[in-house]
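Ticket 4471: requesting a sanity check on a complex prediction with phosphoenolpyruvate. Repro inputs:
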Amino acid sequence: MEFIRLRGIAVSPGVALGRVRVTERLVFSAQREPIPPGRVKAERARLEEAIRRTRRQLSLLRSKIRKKAGPDHAFIFDAHLMILEDQALRSSLDRIIASEKVKAEWALSQVNAKYRGIFESFKDDSFRQRQLDVYDVLVKIYRNLKQKREAKAVAGKRILVAHDLLPSEAAGRLSRGNVLGLALDMGGTTSHAAILARSLNIPTVVGLHDVTGQVKNGDYLILDGTDGEVIINPPPAVRREFESKKQRYDSYRQELRRLARMPSLTLDRVRFRSMANIELPEEMAMAQSLGAEGVGLFRSEYLYLQRSSLPDEEDHYRVYSQLARAAHPAPVCIRTIDIGGDKALPQLKIQQEPNPALGLRAIRLSLKNRDMFRTQLRAILRASFLHNIRLLVPMITEIEEVGEVKLLLEEIKAELRAEKVRFDERIPFGVMIEVPAAAAMTDILLREVDFLSIGTNDLIQYYLAVDRSNEFVSHLYKPLHPAVLRLVRFIIHTAVRAGRRVTVCGEMAADPLAALILLGFGLREFSMNPIFIPRIKRVLRAVEFRTVRRIVAQAMNLRTAQEVEEYVTEKILARHPHAFLRGGAD
Ligand code: PEP
Ligand code: MG
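Returned structure tokens:
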């Protein structure tokens, strides 16, 4: 039997093995079918009936997906129900049927073409996305006209293979509980289908180009959502190999789920908090399922980077309030944009800079573009009414910048009070410590702010003069460099002594050994990519704070990163032999 291996993008981890179901691609047939003038009324009634059925299906899907994947994923159906009731769209359909004397199917395909034309003339990506939503709704009506049921579940669980999945299709099909895995020709990491699949724990590989052309219904498939591979009709030996990979992954996953529910306490009952770094509001449900106790860093730049015009206050507000509600009562720390330098923002026509890492980025850019910054701050303040939002400013280098932000914040607060808009009067205000100058000023900065967040990714790059993304010097990028550890220890000690909250939100917090060292320094809040939360929680739960503090204090007299690594690992293992997973699985 033929045996094909395809490579794609792994977007939802896990391994699936099973038979394939290929979903047909949704297209309007371009047939123009005339009707006799006397049938116009009946044709309109047929369309009405299809719309009614669509409405019922959408409402059903909305409540089903809300239950299975959380409210974030149900929003899409509110939008679709609104499109369905849109007067302009409905009267266009009626008009085409009546004036051209054609079947409703033709009217739908014409209206779809019209909307595609309109939306494509917009430069804004979010408008283009809306075209997809309109298409999604029209296709649903079309199917209902044809009396085609949404492909009823074939008996048994299958691996779904499709060219692409429209948002409502993804929600409808993936929430049925009979999908073992998902393989798509199209798609990227942040597509709706990918995000939903992650929330529902369905292993998924996208960007396979032509998987639909290579498989047929009933073929046997291996889908590896961890490494981004799809194997069609594998021989028994390959099948066995992946069956055991699946077993290993599934038991690891079970362990994660168990850990997510365990309290965040060290053996001597010191409480710590593991939080999530996220970039999309849709990541929230997954983060919570992995045990995130709030969002330690919301990288708000995604709001700017995913579109070609600037987001307005409502765009910001919608996202921040959604996050605050989803996390409540846990905190959500919203970082104002960290854009500029190498992260281009076409909407602002940022100049090319010779040395972007040292250029007009983050708070420097925000203070140069006051209107844009104001818009974001207003939205953050408005979304703070649930009292669980923290405001964080990146790349602070000098006290004057803090002063400027605080002034602006006070102005906006006064505005909101005058407008009688509710917000958190005592919204915690913090700064990132990621420039060495700010680190040296920790004690003075603490007089101005409520909390600190240490961005070790940048702090290490600036302190060691090693570009964090330059592979030629990556061997010099050492989070355990004694100079880095001494600096971070100083920041944490100073904050703890001042009784202030301090978080580490750089990658360092996600490394088990580094996290132990941070714990030893007195850190209690660790924020990281949510997929690393379980392993950090596991290692911190496996040790005694007192012991770690003692070992780490000793290690601060060592000379090199390697010495620190060897010493701490050896001493911790001597006291807690099970702190790290064997074989480097940590
Ligand atoms: C950091 O610098 O450590 C950080 C968390 O911010 P970013 O990675 O977004 O620069
Ligand atoms: Mg940074």
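Notes from triage: The chain has a mean pLDDT of 89. Leaving this open until the requester confirms.
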